[in-house]
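Record passed on here:
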Amino acid sequence: MNWNQLLSSKRTGETDSQKIIHDRTQFQRDYDRLIFSSPFRRMQDKTQVFPLPGSIFVHNRLTHSLEVASVGRSLGNNISRFLSENNITQNPLVKELGSVTAAACLAHDMGNPPFGHSGEKAISLFFKSGEGERYKNLINNESVWDDFTDFEGNANALRLLTHQFAGRRRGGFNLTYTTVASIVKYPYASGTPERKKYGYFQPEHQTWQQIVNELGIRKISDKPEIYARHPLVYLVEAADDICYHLMDIEDAHKLGILSTETTRHHFMQFFDADSEKKSLDYIHSICNEVTDANEQIAFLRALVIGKLVDACSEVFRENHEQILQGEFSGSLIGKLSGTLATAMKACEKTGFETIYKHPSVVEIEIAGFKILGTLLREFCHAVMHPDDYYAKLLLPFIPQQYRVADNAPVPQKLQTVLDFISGMTDVYALNLYRKINGMGLSDKR
């Protein structure tokens, strides 16, 4: 793969005759287009980890994505300088690596359903072992059925960004191919053997083919069809890893799940006592001045993010050739060593053993299963039996952009329900659940 081809301003669904000259760069336009979109705004009411809303502000999908974009921009700028200073490419778009990485970071979670990762599980299990299993015999394609029984937010993001929904423009968001490719962490389809996750649903196979052909992304395997990652995926993934591991620790501190001492210890572990004495002296002087515990933690977290950005950028530079050959495996964070690797693993362990098992987090998972399971049952039945009296009451809730004809194939009918439900906010899903269950109706006549 080469950067001259990997960085492209071509847009999904756009022809050459539609190109317009703008003052903003193409990748800045991607960023702005995402920021102003309704699906992006809806992430402000989608769970990241902890329940929403609350008296103490913690991260939701929107604030998480904005922070990931900030870190991603720093990583992209670092690699832009590396490529320019070493004359690796003459592509003028290399100056915009910070912008395109930031744009991809904004979009990376847009396909996630309500209630966090438990929402993905709820959808999958509804079709795999719940009431939705009845539709399996109506879908003759095993790979298409995998789209439902192993619902993947990453693949749903690609669909959301590129699919032409009813009454909408061709090419979805009309983002550049480079921005779209930069969010595809798993460059293969659903149902790929021995792969836990995947990057696109079966209906988006042609879209993915257009992207890889345009950008010259290397094919690693024919059967099954697997491609290399676009190099910028590693930067987006690193920005996401850095933010969610560190910010979950900070949020847990604000909520009293982790003590100030424990949280401070986690962040201080990223500094080596022998080789970073000056940095530690500086940290101690600031912490003596700033006595507010939350501000101390925020200060330490900011320093750690800076260290991790530099370290991940160095890993990328050291493995640049392997990345371009499609031979680099794992993540940039996974290649850290020494103090940084030890500290990051400690944060991950605390996340899995303490934070994600906290009752407030588990309650969201339970609620998500109940709410989404009910919505899936009712709306799947409605689209499959549109002439039923009850179906006629439910179907108007589905926005026009997701509608399909009554005689559409079964996979399209079920997919329209997933498009509708996965785009909901937590609060909207809860309110709709209450409405269709007759909860909260006034006793006044």
Residues 7 and 316 are 17 Å apart (CA to CA). The beta strands are 219-221, 226-227.
